[in-house]
Specification:
Blueprint: H1 7-14, E1 22-25, H2 31-39, E2 45-49, H3 52-65, E3 71-75, E4 89-93, H4 97-105, E5 117-121, H5 126-135, E6 138-148, E7 151-160, H6 169-174, H7 183-192, H8 194-197, H9 205-209, H10 215-224, H11 245-255, H12 257-272, E8 278-282, E9 286-292, E10 304-308, E11 312-316, H13 318-328, H14 330-350, H15 353-378, E12 385-387, E13 392-397, H16 402-406, E14 414-418, E15 425-429, H17 436-451, E16 460-464, E17 469-472, H18 485-499, E18 505-509, H19 517-532, E19 541-545, E20 561-571, E21 574-583, H20 591-598, H21 602-618, H22 629-636, H23 642-650, H24 658-677
Parallel strand pairs: 1-2, 1-4, 2-3, 4-5, 12-16, 15-19, 15-20, 17-18, 18-19
Antiparallel strand pairs: 5-7, 6-7, 8-9, 9-11, 10-11, 13-14, 13-16, 20-21
Helix pairs in contact: 2-3, 4-5, 10-14, 11-14, 20-21
């Protein structure tokens, strides 16, 4: 059975050149690969991916489609899996615009006249990809606008011509999409982004004035420090060659002692005319000059006799002793000298510390601003409205980290409406792994990003400034401090309740799960009531995820509390997480289904269903799904019969014998039984 392609992949398949081999790079689950192979239009189909996991799933897809034998799957990075002339078309779907041109750059054989056609489906930055293609000698053979999942995409086909051109802004914005019926819709969508394109940025004059090139300091450092210097001073090698004469000399002596002595020996032979003059060494008096008896008469008067031998004489000179001193202590003196010179360099640089710090601060600001701008442009972030209101209104918000991890997969965006009025506290229910924590985290991150001056991952965003963001997410213990998971959780919740204000944003996940059901449920309800009630507690904006479905009854009871859940689609005993936040409470926890998704053996999950059905069958018929909290209080604190109280008050426990005590307990039991039956 062939997989169904969305509009983007369908358009991509239609742009592949028939009659020639084709490669699907980043094939993921292999849907497009299977459709291409099953069409019979291509003599050879290659599917490639960087990771083994997607390739394994692609293989399954091909098996189900009945075309596994017509596809060759390859594991590798980008176009490294291909060779020049191997295919007629290369499909790059599910990768970003930047990744697309980086892949192309790493394969020079693509950028040749007569090379393969490139079919590309960038999720964002269409304009930038068009510009890159034109500026690098590619022509757009097709530029088809496609709408999928509420967003517009541009499916491009490009071929290398060698003609480099500089496109206009309008050409980059719309490309050749006007040639298609959908072009008008795509153009309108692109035009909605123009305000963001034209927002403009400060000219940076003030920031530029703070940046000092520091050329003098740079020149001093480059002159003094060896480019291959080690990380520490202890072994030397820090000072550059040519910076200091003595350093060069000591380094030469240390590293080439034999050569230095040979040079001296050759020079002394020439100066004295003694052909057999030799320089030697012993541990008694160090280096010496040895002359045979036949040449003693030619020894200069400046030579000092040190030892007489039967075959000749041994001498020393002032020059030789100085050289000896240098040789024997060269390394230690070199290390000391390098350290001194380095300290002098640091001292001279520290005198310019104000200049350096001012430049460093300016460069840091520039780095932050450019980083924020780059990530906003690459990932289609929007400019938030930030004011002093109590609003947190997000349209199609996304988690900035999770959507990057997903890469080719589409991140499901969600809306959020929070304020200090009717939408003060959102209780979020739903099964594990459905996306509750991701949803809450993304809202906290968006609020934070907006307040630091960043664009945010959303279609639109209105953020009222909060004084703090408090989170309690995840489970952990602190064994070193002797604190259990529950103790850590309660400590953190206590800090939040003590420090949060009505202007705060509070994010709480699964409060009370570390203790018994009744205790945990009671604590969770009390926390929600305290946070949501501005009269008795905080009244701040809150996201509260829980598995206690009983808490959903707070909507309508506590002002400002609203129920939301993660949409789930169930088919038989299988579930699919839709990742959408919808109004209302969850209708089930889907615990067994989640366990199945997590990989529990089928025998275990089937037995779990059997046990669940048995428990549901034997449960009291009058038992409601959600517990009445008033009934719960009575259950936990039942009234003690007055007759029992009278007997307990009348008895003197200290005077009872063991037999009397047993009889008394028996009487109490009868009294209690009669009270309950009555």
């Amino acid at each position: 059975m062939l997989p169904t392609l969305d509009a983007r992949l369908t358009a991509a398949a239609e742009l592949v050149l028939p009659g020639k081999p084709v490669a699907d790079i980043g094939c993921d689950h292999g849907k497009l690969t299977a459709v291409l192979a099953a069409s019979g239009k291509y003599p050879r189909v290659i599917g490639a991916d960087l990771r083994p996991g997607p390739l394994a799933k692609a293989e399954q897809t091909l098996e189900h489609a009945g075309c596994k034998d017509r596809v060759e799957l390859r594991l590798g990075d980008g176009l490294s899996v291909l060779s020049a002339g191997e295919v007629g078309t290369i499909v790059l779907a599910g990768v970003s615009a930047q990744t697309t041109w980086e892949i192309i750059e790493q394969a020079p054989w693509v950028s040749q006249v007569g090379g393969p056609r490139l079919v590309m489906v960038p999720a964002t930055r269409h304009s930038e990809l068009r510009r890159w293609l034109w500026e690098h000698g590619f022509a757009l053979a097709a530029d088809r606008p496609v709408q999928a999942a509420g967003r517009w995409y541009a499916v491009m086909a490009a071929e290398y011509t060698g003609e480099v051109r500089t496109p206009t802004f309008t050409e980059c914005l719309f490309g050749r999409t006007a040639e298609w019926p959908e072009g008008a819709g795509y153009a309108a969508w692109q035009k909605t982004k123009l305000p963001r394109f034209r927002l403009g940025v400060p000219d940076g004059t003030e920031l530029a004035e703070e940046i000092d090139p520091l050329e003098d300091i740079k020149a001093r450092i480059y002159a003094a420090v060896d480019p291959d210097a080690p990380s520490t001073l202890k072994d030397g090698g820090v000072i550059a060659k040519g910076y200091h004469t003595e350093v060069d000399e000591l380094r030469s002596i240390r590293d080439n002692t034999k050569g230095v002595l040979a040079q001296l020996e050759a020079r002394l032979r020439q100066e004295t005319g003694i052909p057999k003059l030799k320089i030697g060494y012993n541990h008694v008096f160090g280096y010496y000059i040895e002359v045979s008896n036949s040449y003693k008469s030619m020894v200069p008067e400046t030579y000092i006799r040190k030892q007489t031998l039967t075959s000749g004489e041994r001498y020393i000179t002032q020059e030789l002793k100085e050289l000896e001193s240098k040789i024997l202590g060269a390394h230690e003196r070199l290390i000391t000298l390098e350290r001194r010179l380095f300290d002098e360099l640091l001292e001279s640089i520290s005198a310019q510390l104000d200049r350096i710090q001012r430049t460093a601060n300016a460069v840091a600001k520039l780095d932050v601003l450019t980083a924020l701008a780059q990530v906003a442009a690459e990932n289609n972030y929007c400019r938030p409205v930030v004011d002093d209101s109590d609003e947190l209104t997000i349209t199609e918000g996304r988690h900035p980290v999770v959507e990057q991890v997903l890469k080719g997969s589409l991140f499901v965006p969600n809306d959020t409406t929070l304020n200090c009025g009717e939408d003060r506290c959102l209780i979020i229910t739903g099964p594990n792994m459905a996306g509750k924590s991701t949803y809450m985290r993304q809202n906290a991150l968006i609020a934070l990003m907006a307040q630091i001056g960043s664009f945010v991952p959303a279609a639109s965003c209105h953020v009222g400034v909060v004084d703090a963001i408090f989170t309690r997410i995840g489970a952990s213990d602190d064994l070193s401090a002797g604190q259990s998971t529950f103790m850590v959780e309660m400590t953190e919740v206590a800090e939040i309740l003590k420090n949060a204000t009505s202007k705060s944003l509070v994010v709480l996940d699964e409060i009370g799960r570390g203790t018994s059901t009744f205790d945990g449920m009671s604590i969770a309800r009390a926390v929600v009531e305290h946070i949501a009630d501005p009269a008795k507690g905080l009244g701040c904006k809150t996201l509260f995820a829980t598995h206690y479905h009983e808490l959903t009854e707070l909507e309508g009871t506590v002002e400002g509390v609203k129920n939301y859940n993660i949409a789930v689609k169930k088919r038989g005993e299988d579930i699919t997480f839709l990742r959408r936040i919808v109004r209302g409470p969850a209708d089930d926890s889907y615990g067994i289904e989640v366990a199945k998704l997590a990989g529990l053996p089928g025998s275990v999950t089937r037995r779990a269903h059997e046990v669940l059905r048995a428990l549901e069958a034997t449960a009291p018929k009058n038992k409601v799904e959600q517990m009445d909290f008033d009934a719960l209080q009575e259950y936990n604190s039942p009234a003690v019969p007055s007759e029992m109280m009278e007997k307990l008050e009348a008895v003197d426990v200290e005077t009872l014998t063991p037999i009397e005590a047993l009889n008394f307990l028996y009487e109490l039991k009868k009294t209690l039984k009669g009270s309950l039956n009555g």
